[in-house]
Design a protein that fits this description.
heterodimer; A: 433 residues; two-stranded antiparallel ribbon; two-stranded antiparallel sheet; 62% helix; B: Cytochrome-c3 Hydrogenase, chain B; three-stranded antiparallel sheet; 8 strands; globular
């Protein structure tokens, strides 16, 4: 008898598998084979290379790498792939999902409990999927006196803005970035500037007291922390001599800027915590004072969208920290080079030799850069998550005095350090002189 | 317009600048009560506590049951502190019926009530932690509570509602190996609560947030009639266990914790210090307890008292807890009046919250050591 699942029986498990097999066989015989017959009967199939193209032949071609790989490479060169899959939304959503899982398990370990455990057999790994399904299946309730169009718009705009933020991040060398803006840092600041607007719009449109207070708090917090956030990155811009994010990463070829600008890195990290509304700066969602702050009236998938946007934003801020201070994708080469014989001579697979043209899909630098970028970003995310287990929430007056006095002062000190390094001739724009 | 509404129900705006917030009873930061808070910007102008959502008529119910069957329902107002809320009732009934309690039973009662005080205080502390947004401080005390809940389960057979105190002693004797297990748990627990200082009480953000908020001066604390940890945090050395020692408290070795600051931080620290004293009391009582002997005096069925009235009080987790019993030569008491610390402490809330920031509301409110169900009875 297992401790993890007390009601687990091997016989029941086998029976459920047999049930599934039975239904697959039934559905394939009753629906799948007739469907193929209909296609074959009604549609005139073309003749290609002297062969009649049947659905079975088309499936065979899908397994042939020499026919599929060029298509895959062409797809990967499109903007759609970049937006939806690799440096864009797919990677960010994957990392966000991983972040939620790690956050819950890590916090649980810190608090001497187990955390998600049952869902998905291994350490509750499917808990997030379950939560998502629950949110989707819930009814969306909109307050009667809410301003409905704006109330609907807010979560969507929140996710959209977070996704726009994600698109600015250069992940790997060789142009793996969705939008390589020449003035990348300014674009980042512009995107960050949207969040308070969306927050206050959603809070105001809900027409309820607690969201209103939460929205006002979020507005105070985000605006007062945007200034030190912008100022703390100025030092990096001075030393790198460019506003382009890719250029900033390339300028950190020999060492990351955190070595010379630790003050700026600390200020930027604290500002990230405040912009993300994470503990100890989670005043806009302070549950014991104002229920859930500006999220109070959201229900169902609207809440789910806001949460998705929050975690995309978390990933994006951590990635910006990596890009600005931790040298982005730079790191020792850990990926082995792709053997050239596979391209020229083919690869020996048992008795047959398969020649696969079109390989490799990704080059060595890109894979290595991606791995280092993800390692560094995950480390930053971990440090963003950690205060949640250690600190209580602070008060709005403490928050404002921290933002307006201390952090702005520290970020000016950081700028002077950068200027000093420039004028002393230690560093020039673009790296070591 | 607002003059036509009954008092306590003025939900609409009365002034252009002032917003009325209904904190509770379905608010995550209120408990089973409502705080009607008026705020001007971020500052609280007025706060009107509105308890009574969990009034169960315990006192009236007690007039229809005899002295023994009153026990299980009189502990319901604070099930986490059930030994302490039954203690004054049981002492009063013993006075009325003229029962002399065996020596061993007195020590067992003291141990049970101190264990229960820790269980209550840990629960209170957990909620204080989550009110301040500190989720680790919610989980740690909730987990450590299990130590004492397990001990009390060994003693009484129930995990939460023990109904352990009976007139004439306690319901049943301690199990055979209780002393060893208890000492082991208490040793471990003392190690654990020392760690609470690292994560919570010495946390700079917590200190900056709760220090000098909701300051209750010594004179105000006395004038408003607060008790327990609230009174002791304001610098008044007042503990019923020292002032009017009941059972064997006069023979035990412990101190009363007093802090002078009177702010939310001091009020939250006193119960934590009290838990350390409780551990001392438990250890001392275990060493001084007679190793054998009866723990319960056999009573007649349906005992009747004389024509008299008794008032006894004890120090509960929330301060002085009194019980006034009037007997009229019947098996049932004529009147049972519980005078609870929670309600006395709540009186201070409107004074403390006036002029505070909204962010201080949860910390000041919960630092008053208020238990809504007990105050409503």
């Amino acid at each position: 008898m297992s401790v993890i699942a007390p009601n687990f029986r091997l016989s029941g498990f086998i029976r459920s598998i047999l049930d599934n097999v039975f239904w697959i066989i039934v559905l394939v015989t009753l629906a799948g084979i007739p469907a193929i017959q209909i296609v074959l009967f009604y549609i005139e199939m073309p003749v290609i290379d002297g062969e009649l193209l049947t659905p079975f032949l088309a499936l065979t071609w899908l397994a042939d790498p020499s026919r599929v790989l060029p298509i895959v490479k062409a797809l990967m060169a499109t903007d759609l792939f970049r937006i939806a899959v690799f440096p864009g939304f797919g990677l960010a959503a994957l990392l966000a999902a991983g972040t939620i899982f790690v956050e819950r398990k890590m916090l649980a370990k810190l608090q001497l409990r187990v955390g998600p455990f049952y869902c998905g057999k291994f350490e509750g790994i499917l808990q997030l999927a379950g939560d998502g399904l629950k949110l989707i299946s819930k009814e969306i309730i909109i307050p009667a006196k809410a301003d409905k169009p704006i109330f609907w718009l807010a979560p969507v705009a929140f996710v959209g803005t977070a996704a726009a933020f994600v698109s600015l991040i250069p992940v790997a060398p060789g142009g793996w970035v969705v939008a390589d803006v020449e003035l990348g840092i300014l674009a980042v600041f512009a995107v960050i500037g949207f969040f308070p607007i969306i927050t206050i719009l959603s809070a105001w449109s809900a027409n309820s007291k607690f969201p209103f207070i939460g929205g006002i708090r979020a507005l105070h917090q985000m605006i007062s922390f945007e200034i030190p956030l912008i100022l703390s990155l100025l030092g990096v811009v001075m030393l790198a001599g460019t506003l382009n994010l890719t250029g900033i990463v390339e300028s950190q070829d020999s060492f990351p800027w955190i070595v010379f600008l630790p003050v700026g890195a600390v200020v930027f990290f604290i500002c990230i915590l405040a912009e993300l509304e994470r503990i100890p700066f989670d005043l806009p969602e302070a549950e014991s004072e104002i229920v859930a702050g500006w999220l109070t009236e959201f229900s169902g998938m609207m809440y789910g969208l806001v949460q998705l946007g929050t975690y995309l934003k978390l990933y994006a801020f951590a990635a910006i920290f990596t890009v600005m201070f931790l040298a982005g994708w730079h790191g020792p080469m850990i990926v082995p080079p792709f053997p050239a014989e596979i391209i020229t001579d083919g690869i020996q697979l048992g008795p047959v030799t398969a020649t696969i043209p079109g390989l490799p899909l990704f080059d060595q630098e890109m894979l290595n850069g991606t791995i280092w970028f993800i390692i560094k970003t995950v480390a930053v995310i971990f440090f963003i998550l950690l205060p949640r287990g250690v600190f209580p929430r602070i008060r709005i007056d403490m928050l404002l005095s921290l933002g307006w006095y201390k952090l702005i002062g520290l970020s000016f000190i950081n700028i002077f350090i950068a200027l000093g390094l420039l004028y002393a001739g230690v560093l020039g724009p673009g790296g070591m002189i | 317009m607002s003059a036509q509404l009954p008092p306590g129900l003025q939900l609409e705006k009365t002034d252009e600048r002032i917003m009325t917030l209904n904190v509770g009873p379905q608010h995550p930061g209120s408990g089973h009560m409502r705080l009607i808070v008026q705020i001007d910007g971020d500052y609280i102008v007025a706060c009107d506590p509105d308890p009574g959502y969990v009034h169960r008529g315990e006192e009236k119910m007690a007039e229809y049951r005899n002295y023994i069957t009153n026990i299980p329902h009189l502990e319901r107002p604070v099930i986490h502190d059930s030994c302490n809320i039954l203690y004054p009732y049981v002492l009063g009934v013993e006075d009325i019926l003229g029962i002399e309690v065996p020596e061993r039973a007195k020590y067992v009662r003291v141990i049970a009530s101190e264990l229960n005080r820790c269980v209550y205080t840990l629960y209170w502390l957990a909620i204080y932690g989550i009110f301040l947004g500190h989720s680790t401080m919610f989980m740690w005390p909730t987990g450590d509570r299990e130590l004492f809940i397990d001990l009390l389960e060994k003693m009484t057979g129930a995990r939460v509602t023990h109904a352990y105190m009976v007139p004439g002693g306690v319901r049943n004797d301690l199990p055979a190996n209780f002393e060893d297990v208890c000492l082991r748990q208490v040793d471990y627990f003392e190690k654990r609560i020392a760690e609470y200082a690292d994560v919570f009480y010495d946390n700079p953000i917590l200190i900056a947030r709760t220090e000098n908020t909701g300051v209750l001066s010594r004179t105000d604390a006395i004038r408003l009639g607060t008790t327990g940890s609230v009174l002791r945090a304001s610098g008044v050395d007042y503990d019923i266990r020292k002032r009017e020692p009941y059972d064997v408290y006069d023979s035990l070795d412990f101190e009363t914790n007093v802090l002078r600051a009177g702010d939310a931080y001091a009020r939250s620290k006193i119960p934590w210090l009290d838990m350390m004293e409780s551990c001392r009391i438990i250890r001392d009582a275990l060493s001084k307890m007679p190793k054998s002997g009866s723990v319960r005096v056999k009573l007649k069925p349906n005992p009747k008292g004389g024509e008299e009235s008794v008032y006894r009080r004890v120090e509960s987790g929330r301060g002085a807890l009194g019980c006034h019993i009037i007997s009229r030569k019947k098996p049932e008491p004529y009147r049972v009046k519980l005078s609870v610390g929670s309600f006395r402490n709540l009186i201070a809330l409107p004074y403390l919250l006036k002029g505070e920031r909204l962010g201080n509301m949860p910390s000041v409110y919960w630092s008053l050591n208020y238990w809504p169900v007990e105050a409503d009875r």
